[in-house]
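User: My instructor asked us to take a sequence, write out its structure as tokens, and then describe one feature of it. I'm not sure where to start. Here is the sequence I was given:
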Amino acid sequence: MSQELKQRMVDGGLWAAGGRIAAIASSFVLNLLLARSLAPSDYGVYYVVLSTMIILATVGTVGMDRVAVRFIAARKAMGDWNDVRAVIGRCLKTVLTATLLLCLLFYLLVPWFFTQVLEVPAAIALSGLMVLWLFFSTMQRQLAETFRGLNDIRGATLFGGFRNNGILSSVLTFGGILALWAWGAISLATVFATSVCTSLLVVVVAAWTLRRRLRAPEPSPRPAAPSGEWSTLRVLHEGWPLWLASLIAVLRAQVNGWFAAGFDSAEQVALFAVADRFVLLLTAPLTIVNMLLPPVVAELYARGQIKRMERVVQAVGGLASLPCIVILALIFLVGRPTLGFLFGAHYEAAYLMLVVLCIGQVTTILTGSWQVVLPMTGLRRQTLRISMWAMLIQFACSLIGGYYAGVLGVAIGASAGAIAGNILGMIAAHRHLSIWTFISVRRAVLKDAATLLTKRMSGLMQARAQGG
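Assistant: Let's start with the prediction itself. The structure tokens for your sequence are:
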């Protein structure tokens, strides 16, 4: 690994880690606050609506978030900034059109959807806020992933939304709801209104920042391809397999709330919500890696450096696995009393579901970042097939488990889908690219990473001291 690439990964890793830590802390305390302030049934409604928003925001991007990361990074590596601007513009226009149509359709279907499909009629009164939240959060995700394609991890981390752990979104939402709690004004409507205002503010700031960056002159050593080359049909052709794969992955992660609401009471859905949010602590380090790796993988693959890419993926995944193991041990040892202490005695019953969900996430850690490697190397249809098989296994197990065991059965189905998908994904990466994505922890890698981080932190402190 070259010194330049190492330094870039360290810089991006510091921002990704900082953003993830801020998002985890804000989200954890926010859920704790909501669980204690809202009735269990209302907290269950919040969880179901949030899951719905995440799913529909993925629908609204129509794959342009993944197209932006892959092709912006590749064109930037070749120094063709005219083509970079063409890709960004076409992707943003496509997402804007698709999101407006989706919001209109969703607004018309809200009464039917939340009474006949999810049986959560309390959400109907919030339909206007949900539509606004859907629009701004979708645009926010596209803008954040555009920064990631530019290899600007700082911008992606600052402007990301609820799905990609943005600092501004997490901190501002938490601050707003904390103020509502202090004033005794927390309700489902005020929580959603705060989220809408936060997304609107982040979209405005992100769009302004992106415009300033793209207007700056950049060297272009070769004639730029015509902007018309990036037509709507082309970006949709490139993006639809990635979109379906991303949508299936989001469905696998978020549809559990729908299954839980369909097979159990709102109070039991609240238990599942706490377990589902708590288990995010386990995979947080790997999530940081997956925020950092996409532009690096796309660039190394474009240069034909496959084995180098394998070493990078394995080494970084190995480093991320170390804190995951510590978190897993703590969950198994003190998970039950911790749930009761933080969320209240009612939520101690979520411990068994938490353990079941953790079992499935262990394979996510061990098999590494195959879910980044496959789409960023052009293996779109393979990614789609793997996601479909994992989704079918998860849905079948969740339906059967939910019917016989309620929310616990839904948790078992979620773990079964995670195990199947991760094993299939790792095997696919080896079959098509002749690399393994499983984690690898070596003493030399740990020493090298520690040295780089120490030097980087020392440099930042010296720069701050000189600036002061």
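For the description part of your assignment, you could build on this observation: Residues 3-462 form one domain. Try explaining in your own words what that tells you about the chain.
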